[in-house]
Amino acid sequence: xxxxxxxxxxxxxxxxxxxxxxxxxxxxxxxxxxxxxxxxxxxxxxxxxxxxxxxxxxxxxxxxxxxxxxxxxxxxxxxxxxxxxxxxxxxxxxxxxxxxxxxxxxxxxxxxxxxxxxxxxxxxxxxxxxxxxxxxxxxxxxxxxxxxxxxxxxxxxxxxxxxxxxxxxxxxxxxxxxxxxxxxxxxxxxxxxxxxxxxxxxxxxxxxxxxxxxxxxxxxxxxxxxxxxxxxxxxxxxxxxxxxxxxxxxxxxxxxxxxxxxxxxxxxxxxxxxxxxxxxxxxxxxxxxxxxxxxxxxxxxxxxxxxxxxxxxxxxxxxxxxxxxxxxxxxxxxxxxxxxxxxxxxxxxxxxxxxxxxxxxxxxxxxxxxxxxxxxxxxxxxxxxxxxxxxxxxxxxxxxxxxxxxxxxxxxxxxxxxxxxxxxxxxxxxxxxxxxxxxxxxxxxxxxxxxxxxxxxxxx
Length: 460
Ligand SMILES: *Cc1c(COP(=O)(O)O)cnc(C)c1O
Fold this sequence. Notes:
α4 (about 100-110) packs parallel to α11 and α11 (about 335-370) packs across α14 (about 445-460). It is built from 14 helices and 18 strands. Strands 4-14-13-10-9-5-8 form a 7-stranded mixed beta sheet, sandwiched between helices. It has helices spanning about 10-25, 65-70, 80-85, 100-110, 125-140, 195-200, 210-220, 245-255, 280-285, 310-315, 335-370, 395-405, 410-420, 445-460, and strands spanning about 45-50, 50-55, 60-65, 115-120, 145, 160, 185-190, 200-205, 225-230, 260-265, 270, 275-280, 290-295, 305-310, 375-380, 380-385, 425, 435. Keywords: Isomerase, Pyridoxal phosphate.
């Protein structure tokens, strides 16, 4: 990686990173935090307030990553602090049912599409893994179809990739990313440590290629338990579904008796609904059989959920007649559910004004980027900026073509990332990751971002 200077590569961050490299493999507890795809020393976080992130060296940045989407209200929101402060003296965990779980479930059922019953878990990985287990239990089938460039957590069989190409990890992301090189039925592990027999259970096809998915479902009829998809893909940059893609998957699943699972770990509570945020299922008007949620629903605490049709969720032990096991010591943790409920309620208060501001921001951003040969994609509070690109990618192959320039070539994203860091703006540190707007990003904050982007592109 050519770029090593971040402009704020302070001694304090470097000291902390040196220590972390002794404590943790690669110095981090999740790969994409390491800056390995943009170069330089990762910032260490020491605090945050609203749209601002404070680094360990005391420097403040406007945060457009917001904990990868877990902070839809920005940092340290007062209303969430109040809810947490109320719970703290009452205890941190019981391993017993609580009223707080019921309250959050009721609220989610109002806001999200088709969640007749749900289970709380502690991470998006668990939510996807568990939804797929229930789908297999319900259908009695083994195989899964996923789409290239979609991320559904790091369960073994979900880190599969298609074709016979040499496995290649997304730069620093720890996510499995390899181009589709074969139309054959075989998948391979996307990382070491996964038996090929597990990867074989997960078939992959290109995102937005409905015909390829339909062919596979016909061909492997009676064997595909579920099709899992990010309804708006947000782990290869932001890639919107083509008109008809999601509806086509719904029909193809119905024809072949496969379940349709929307992985809304990112999109949940980030799509515009009637009076507040909702999920992509509601926004696009497509009803999946099961959905997975995470990130935003815990407002920054470890909380995720999966749910959907009652008859499918009834497979879970100990429902009467249930025979599918899933559990969790900290599932529905009282601090996490308190934060989740406060986050949703606060989001509804903030949403109308915030959504209007984001739309104004996008309306100004689009022509600004065009002027400099860049482009963007956006949906709700999600955004990607594509420097030196004439159009946003439609699938993983196109996203990869853009991202490859970071390792071999002009490094347009890394340069943008560091250019913005020098201008006190923190973008998600990988070309594969989306940017996240929060309701704390005021019109003034977003104006500052626009001016800094203009300054960066004008000088570069
Ligand atoms: C982040 C993410 C996951 C995994 O969630 P974790 O909480 O990191 O385990 C799953 N699906 C999607 C779409 C995600 O973005």
